[in-house]
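Reminder to self: tokens first, then the designed residues, so the page reads top to bottom the way the pipeline ran.
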């Protein structure tokens, strides 16, 4: 895409209100400002993830309406205010990225590193520590399920409707850290990529039934 940005008529639908003589100057200004001059003649598929995000920023900064087609959900998430997903030529959903994540996503994943599971602390064994953390999670998320567990790490699946308050979740996690139960944690929502793959599986299932 860097190479495309340098084309004389690059993205006329995005920058049609800019005089043709000014287009290259403006594109050069963005490329220099984001320090990606060395990549300016590369196709986007050969660029790193960080460079792709910078290119997405350039396009989004054009402040013009456009319809883009892509299989890169990272690109869609960065560029688009509204996203539609098509299955077998039919539009199956449309809305903001956050709306699609909330409606079609699988909720949240909470990854926890339990503190001190490899050693005994104040008479507590590794299993005791894990049980305490598990009870802590069940107290705030009654339907939380263990998705993966290995060593001192536990990954929970939390449904969308059970996430009543992010603030409460973080407060409980920080309390767990202060009580030496949790070493660190991360909370992430279903990505747009996972929503896209969900619809892709529906297409595969429809094809198999035919």
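Designed residues (210 positions):
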């Amino acid at each position: 895409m860097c190479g495309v940005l340098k084309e004389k008529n690059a993205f006329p639908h995005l920058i049609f209100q800019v005089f043709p003589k000014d287009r290259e100057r403006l594109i050069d200004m963005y490329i220099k400002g984001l320090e990606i001059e060395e990549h300016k003649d590369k196709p986007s598929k050969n660029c790193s993830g960080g460079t792709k995000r910078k290119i997405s920023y350039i396009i989004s900064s054009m402040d013009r309406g456009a319809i883009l087609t892509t299989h890169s959900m990272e690109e869609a998430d960065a560029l688009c205010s509204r996203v539609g997903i098509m299955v077998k030529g039919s539009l199956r959903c449309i809305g903001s990225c956050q709306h699609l994540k909330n409606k079609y996503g699988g909720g949240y994943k909470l990854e926890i590193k339990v503190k001190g599971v490899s050693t005994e602390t104040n008479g507590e064994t590794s299993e005791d520590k894990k049980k305490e953390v598990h009870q802590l999670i069940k107290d705030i998320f009654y339907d939380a399920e263990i998705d993966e567990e290995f060593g001192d790490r536990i990954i929970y699946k939390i449904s969308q409707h059970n996430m009543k308050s992010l603030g409460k979740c973080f407060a409980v996690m920080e309390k767990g850290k202060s009580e030496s139960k949790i070493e660190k944690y991360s909370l992430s929502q279903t990505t747009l990529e996972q929503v896209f793959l969900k619809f892709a599986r529906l297409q595969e299932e429809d094809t198999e039934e035919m």
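Residues 79-104+192-210 form one domain.
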